[in-house]
Amino acid sequence: MMLKKFIVGLTGGIASGKTTVANLFAQYGIDLVDADVIAREVVSTNSDGLKAITEHFGQAILLTDGSLDRAALRTQVFDNPEQRLWLNTLLHPMIRQKMLDQVQTSTSAYVIMIVPLLFENHLDSLVDTTLVVDIAPELQISRTIQRDGVSKQQVEHILASQMTREQRLAQADNIIDNQGDHEVLRSQVFGLHQQYLQQAADLETNVHD
C-alpha cells in the first residue's frame, strides 16, 4: 500500500532563492526531492533517457566521454517546437516517476518537491500545497547576471519563457518574500515548517479515520 505523504511543491522564478529556502527546510530534517537533480539523472551516462536521445538525435549529441552534450541538445531543440515536444514527452514521465519514487522512500514528516516550472508543467497536480519564493524581476535579473555570468538580454529571455510573477503568485498557496535579510527568510521558513507539520499530521489523521 502506498502511504500518503504530504508534499509541498516549492517553486519560483530564476534566481529567486529556491535552493536557499529548500536548504532551510532541510535543516529541520525535511527530505528534498529536486526536479533539476532528477532531470540530470535521467539523462546521465548509460541511462535509458540518454540512449533514447542518442537514437533520436545521433552520436553528435554526446561528448567524447559518452555523456550528454547539453549545449548540442539545446541547439537541437531551441527553435524547434517539434523536437522540444519529443524531448519533453520522453523525459517528463521519467522525471515525474522518479520524483514520486523519492517521495515514497522519504522518512520525513512531509516532503519538499523543488520544481522550477511547477505550474508551467502542471506538476502542481502532484502536490498538496504550493509554496512560491518571490522576488522582484529586477532583482532576479541582477542576481542571475551575478550568479551565471550571463547577459541581461539572456536573463530577460529566460524570464519571458517562464510564467509572470503575477500568474505565479495567483496560484500560490503560500508565499515567501526573499527580498529581505537571511534572518527574515529563516523566520518565514520556520513558520511554514510548523504549518506543514500540522497539515501533514491532519492528512495522516484523515487517512486513518
Write the SSE topology.
Elements: E1 7-12, H1 18-26, E2 31-34, H2 35-41, H3 48-57, H4 70-78, H5 81-105, E3 111-114, E4 129-134, H6 137-148, H7 152-161, H8 165-171, E5 174-177, H9 182-208
Parallel strand pairs: 1-3, 1-4, 2-3, 4-5
Helix pairs in contact: 6-7
Helix percentage range: 55-70%
Q: Sketch the major β-sheet.
A: 5 strands, parallel
Globally, the shape reads globular
Assembly of the depicted chains:
single chain
Strand order of the largest sheet: 2-3-1-4-5
Question: What is the C-level CATH assignment of the largest domain?
Answer: Alpha Beta
CATH topology of the largest domain: Rossmann fold
The termini sit apart by 16 Å
Number of domains: 2
Identify the CATH architecture of the largest domain.
3-Layer(aba) Sandwich
CATH superfamily of the largest domain: P-loop containing nucleotide triphosphate hydrolases
Strands, total number: 5
Number of helices: 9
> Can you write the helix and strand succession as a string?
EHEHHHHEEHHHEH
Detail the poorly predicted runs: none
Rg, nearest Å: 18 Å
Residue fraction in strands: 5-15%
Give the averaged pLDDT, no decimals: 93
Description:
Helix content is 56%, strand content 11%. The protein is an alpha/beta fold. The chain folds into 2 domains: 117 residues, Rossmann fold (3-Layer(aba) Sandwich); 67 residues, no CATH class. Strands 2-3-1-4-5 form a 5-stranded parallel beta sheet, sandwiched between helices. Helix 6 packs across helix 7. The two termini are 16 Å apart. The mean pLDDT is 93.
